[in-house]
Amino acid sequence: MVDEVVVMIIVIYVDCILVAGSDEDYEELLASLNENFPTKNLGECQWSDGYAIERDVEAGTLRISQTAYIDSMVKLFDVQSTSRISATPGAGLATTVGGTVVSHGSKTQSIVSLSSTEAEYIAAGEGVKEALFVRAVLSFVAPETSGSSIQVLEDNQGAIALVQNPLSSGRTKHIDVRYHFIRGLFGSGDIAVKFVPTKEQHADLLTKALSRASLQYHRRKLINFPEKL
């Protein structure tokens, strides 16, 4: 960003780099990379990590889809011959440093939760595990951040109570002991848990069907885009 204006977006996945910006800035970046790493220009991106990308410059539109992946899942599970689809709760997480996302993901929980509180509690633990890894990497490159507390943002008051309360009740004693490690981290001060309203839970972007306005709002917050863009 230059003077609060985004001049280029760079996405790195393994050995692939996606670049969105002006031709001039792109050529400058490519030349800089080639000074240290052999880099090949594959042209305009049409496929990346399972996503098909279609851009219409004249219409000013960008379309991203996973049609091929969906078709493969339909064929694999023979969805066309079924009348009902069941789903297991999914968990979405986003780890931020300085207000910008450095890690994110979503996945289906491997167990069946008996309540939304239990599902959120388990999901919070998954998010903390990722945040611990990010903190370890950050401590290596920036030692002055070593030992900093991780702030967990949660919109379920019941899940927060489970994290903060080391005692089990009749409603929670069935939860596998491996999911309670988060309580120890809270007790040691390694993490802090803060309640946020659901409308400010930006990780919902990763697991829920949202209105266009909500999706755009959460997207801006997650990638730390200025409101004027």
Characterization of this structure:
The chain has 6 helices and 9 strands; from the N terminus they run ββαβββαββαβααβα. It is an alpha+beta fold and about 230 residues long. The protein has a domain of about 140 residues: 2-Layer Sandwich (Nucleotidyltransferase, domain 5). The strands form 4 sheets. It has a 3-stranded antiparallel β-sheet with strand order 3-4-5. A two-stranded antiparallel sheet has the order 1-2. It is globular, with a radius of gyration of 21 Å. The termini are close together.
Annotation keywords:
229 residues, 6 helices, single chain, three-stranded antiparallel sheet, alpha+beta, 9 strands, two-stranded antiparallel ribbon, Nucleotidyltransferase, domain 5
Describe the SSE topology.
Blueprint: E1 8-13, E2 16-21, H1 23-34, E3 47-48, E4 51-56, E5 61-65, H2 67-77, E6 90-97, E7 100-108, H3 116-141, E8 150-154, H4 157-164, H5 181-188, E9 191-195, H6 212-223
Helix pairs in contact: 3-4
Choose one word for the global shape. Answer: globular
Element string (H = helix, E = strand): EEHEEEHEEHEHHEH
**Portion in beta strands:** 15-25%
Number of helices: 6
The main sheet orders its strands as 3-4-5
- Tell me, rounded to a whole number, the average pLDDT: 79
Please give the share of residues in helix: 25-40%
Uncertain segments are 80-88
State the separation between the terminal residues, measured CA to CA.
Answer: 12 Å
The CATH class of the domain at 87-223 is Alpha Beta
Structural class: alpha+beta
Q: Largest beta sheet, briefly?
A: 3 strands, antiparallel
CA radius of gyration is 21 Å
